[in-house]
Inverse folding.
């Protein structure tokens, strides 16, 4: 049950900058048509330094660079398919825009993706990106999301099937194309084929 006008989420292993809520609330009040507001973030890698971990850090820096747009503005569904750059810890929702779409807690790995996609395609919520840095996402080797490639793929396709009928033909084709690129490159990264993974990311 949500009693307030706005909602933000913070996982136990991540953290916000001190004025995160103030930054976002000011923007939401300034631009009343925003339903979902997300921002820039940084990955904070928590492992002992070594050559292997240095490569991991380098890869994550590249991901942060590609995820954090230079300019603020509204984000189209086409753009979010091509680059799903939403870190859930950075989001602020307008409560009135999410009450009709329940969060599906059966999705153990892609619950946030599923929720956002249904808001965008079913609810037709507006999505806005703010280039201010508001959150840090902790990354560590024992994370479930870093050890569950196949489950990621299965759950993400379940998300797609939920909203497929709401997508245009172009959006469906884009999803299939970039879904394969994203998960294949992520798999290469997890099996330590960093060079190949980076080449794929750069090409798209």
């Amino acid at each position: 049950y949500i009693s307030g006008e706005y909602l933000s989420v913070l996982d136990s292993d991540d953290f916000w900058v001190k004025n995160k809520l103030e930054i976002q609330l000011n923007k939401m009040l300034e631009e009343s048509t925003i339903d979902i507001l997300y921002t820039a973030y940084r990955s904070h890698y928590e492992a002992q330094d070594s050559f292997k971990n240095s490569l991991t850090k380098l890869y994550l820096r590249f991901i942060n660079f590609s995820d954090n747009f230079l300019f603020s503005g509204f984000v189209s569904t086409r753009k979010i398919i091509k680059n799903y750059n939403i870190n859930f810890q950075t989001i602020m929702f307008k409560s009135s825009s999410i009450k009709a779409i329940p969060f599906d807690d059966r999705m153990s790995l892609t619950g946030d993706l599923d929720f956002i996609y249904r808001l965008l395609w079913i609810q037709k919520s507006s999505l806005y990106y703010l280039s201010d840095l508001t959150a840090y996402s902790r990354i560590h080797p024992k994370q479930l999301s870093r050890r569950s490639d196949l489950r990621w793929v299965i759950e993400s396709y379940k998300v797609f099937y939920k909203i497929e009928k709401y997508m245009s033909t172009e959006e469906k084709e884009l999803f299939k194309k970039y879904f394969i690129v994203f998960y294949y490159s992520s798999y290469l990264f997890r099996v330590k084929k960093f060079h190949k993974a980076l080449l794929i990311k750069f090409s798209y």
Q: What stands out?
A: The chain is about 45% helix and 15% strand. The chain has a mean pLDDT of 83. The longest strand covers residues 127-139.
